[in-house]
Amino acid sequence: MAEKFDLQEREVWDGNYAASQAMRQAKVDVMAAYPITPSTPIVENYGAYVANGYVDGEFVMVESEHAAMSACVGASAAGGRVATATSSQGFALMVEVLYQASGMRLPIVLNVVNRALASPLNVRGDHADMYLGRDSGWIQMDAFNSQEAYDLALCAFKIGENHSVRLPVMVHQDGFITSHTAQNVYPLTDEAAYNFVGEIDPVDDMLDFSRPVTYGAQTEEDWHFEHKAKQHKALMDSVPVIEDVFAEFEKVSGRKYKRVESYMMEDAEVAIVALGTTVETSRVAALRMREQGIKAGVVAPRVFRPFPFDEIRDALENVKSVAVLDRSSPGGAMGAFYNEVSAALYTTENRPLVTNYIYGLGGRDFAVKDAMDIFADQKANADAGHITTDIQQFSGLRGPKLGFFKTKRG
Amino acid sequence: MQDLKLCAQDKRGIHELEAGKDLIGWDEVTQGSVLPSFEGDASNVAHLKQEERCYSDFNSYTATVASWRVKKPVFNIDVCIDCQNCWVWCPDTSIISRDKQMLGIDYDHCKGCEVCVEVCPTNPKSLLMFAEQEDLETALSQWPEKKKKEK
Amino acid sequence: MIEIRWHSRAGQGAVTGAKSLGDIVATTGKEVQAFALYGSAKRGAALRAYNRIDDEPIITHEKFMYPDYVLVIDPALAMTDDITMNDKETTKYIITTHLDKESLIKEIPALQGKEDRVFVVDCIQISLDTIGRSIPNAPMLGAFVKVSGMFELDYFLENMKRVLAKFPQKIIDGNMQAITRAYNEVK
After folding, report:
1. Are A173 and A114 spatial neighbours (Cβ–Cβ below 8 Å)?
2. Which are the contacts of A92, defined by CB distance < 8 A and separation ≥ 6?
3. Of A259, A305, A331, residue with least CA distance to A135
């Protein structure tokens, strides 16, 4: 039996510590990990819980992130509750196995502490790694602060392990800005947390000797497409389960989560759409814009995959001008998030103006003032009835103004 | 002809692998392309012989690749020393051996690769390749003599 | 909202100091934030740590701030780092130094005209005397308690004992003495 961990009703935890506590409370059976900044403390703390008897699970040391996720695949296929954490280069090395995990429908939980991808080398937060996972077939949820990193990690097990979902789940938090920022966190008791998450009920587990199964079958052009389509359907169909789990979590915690979070959008004329901590900083900016008489709001996908095409559209269709913020170097295109939001808005009656801002790469500070400047651009667009700036701009970048493409509307 | 259905259930090798047939759609394929090998409770399966096991259609037991073969190995029980070399090396698990006694070939799954012949240590070999249509009697009647060591 | 900026070197405990302060402030029912802008991760490299304290949940995640307090726990950084950056007319400075206030302000032109908002305390000497190592974070907390008037000293000491619970008694006692001495000596 695991030792009792002393928890206060109100803790001051950073995002890493919060996530590691969720791993402890969920009684993870196997954590295989290869630590990397800034997610190191998640697995380090879990290792300490194992060493000090606070969990009965196994900590598996491996030789790379590729091996870490491979070990997670094995342990999950065996029927265990499995989790790990990574960032950036480690995430990139894991990518091959991420597709294996989702293709095999293994409900592994991966805490991703978002960090930029080299080169140049950088340990700080941007969303390059998060974007790298966006086609991998995982559910991706996004925490905007430490409390949410804890809450969503608990929800992740319950969503992924649900028999009608059976998919791996990533919980993202911003490197350093969330992972190393201590804030008030209100944890559940161990008992309440475990009762909420529940016991894992394995499917096709390899340790069931009465029913031997093959994992990792080869399927060529005669079968592969059907399997991938079924997997995609499962990801799309996870929506009601995600919503149910959020509703159940609200009952035990009082904290309400939605697939798309909207702030001050009831009467908004201009909006910022963002991910991560930027959502909250932008809320501060929206309040200040409202003091100036500009009806500003903020929209943020809590669930990045499956992409909330429907709810994003509902949240934004009556706005005049929208700024979509991408915290990842777009590599020769508009930001990926911009493209997805734009596609959703293209199918609305109103078709708001949509512009793209690249910002915060490598952990560049995104200040309230930066968000206010973006709101001011949107207000100018709304008043003019067309996009007045380049469609893609860069916020917080030194040097001559950089931008790409002009609108053909208006 | 040799016993083509040596130690076989009725459903061993009953359909051609990759034969054109109506394949099921995305809604019917297994979750995660996970394939159970047996029907029903298989707890004891390790202790059962192949022909006693209840293989599922996901297992290649019910499929045949016999037509892939150009030549077939023929087994001569009179020369065999039951060393199990062929059983170990056969890439398609097509050597049938019971209680460490070599019985013959699973011709539904043998692709005629000739590895068994290659690894057979007896003199003459206990396994030799013959034309697919050659019957057992004729093949055995053509079996070579023991080779003498040349000095 | 109260905002605090720490100027420190890696290894002097500013991050731990900021987190401990956050932890203790949270016990009073406030919402807190504690984070750091790490320089090179090597011991001795300059770094800044930050606290925010408010009655409402803190949702800004910018590093940028107009600090209400600037806590400098390395004497050389007071000279070389831009400690008055983004300050306000009310920003209070607590600076580790062996100098008296007048001599220090003479050395740092940016502090001139702000004499009534500058406080000095020798956190390095206090930590050497009480903890036995140059860990100036704990004494700075004592000085902050005095200057801010945010807590009663006894309340702070009691809670600091809880924060330090995992350490040996000798270390806890040393920290208690360090906080108390700095509380009494800050000028």
Report:
1. yes
2. A117, A129, A132
3. A305
Spatial distance between the Cα atoms of A39 and A179, rounded to a whole number of angstroms = 7
Q: A281 to chain C: which residues are within 8 Å by CB?
A: 59-62
Question: What is the structure's pLDDT at A260?
Answer: 98
Nearest-neighbour CA in chain B from A106: distance (Å): 8
Helices vs strands, H then E, count in chain C: 7, 6
pTM: 0.93
pLDDT at residue A61 greater than cutoff 80: yes
Sorted by where each begins, the domain ranges of chain A are 11-253, 261-404
CATH architecture of A11-253: 3-Layer(aba) Sandwich (3.40)
Fold for A261-404, please state it.
Rossmann fold (3.40.50)
Instruction: Report which secondary-structure segment, H or E, holds A85.
Output: strand A82-86
Judge whether C59 is closer than 8 Å to chain A, CB to CB: yes
Whole-number Å distance between alpha carbons of C165 and C155: 16
Chain A residue closest to B27 (CA)?
A230
**Domain C2-185 class, CATH top level:** alpha beta
Return d(Cα A258, Cα A273) in angstroms, integer.
15
Q: A277 at the C interface (CB within 8 A)?
A: yes
Residue C101 CB neighbour total at 10 angstroms: 15
- How far out from the chain centre does Cα B25 lie? 32
Distance of residue A77 Cα from the nearest chain C Cα, in angstroms: 39
Count of pairs with CB atoms under 8 A, one residue in A, one in B: 68
Contact check, Cβ <8 Å, A367/C62? yes
CATH topology of domain B15-19+34-141: Alpha-Beta Plaits (3.30.70)
Residues of chain B with pLDDT under 70: 1-2, 18-21, 151
Dihedral pair phi/psi, residue A44, rounded to 5°? -65, -45
| Per-residue model confidence (pLDDT) at position B16 | 84
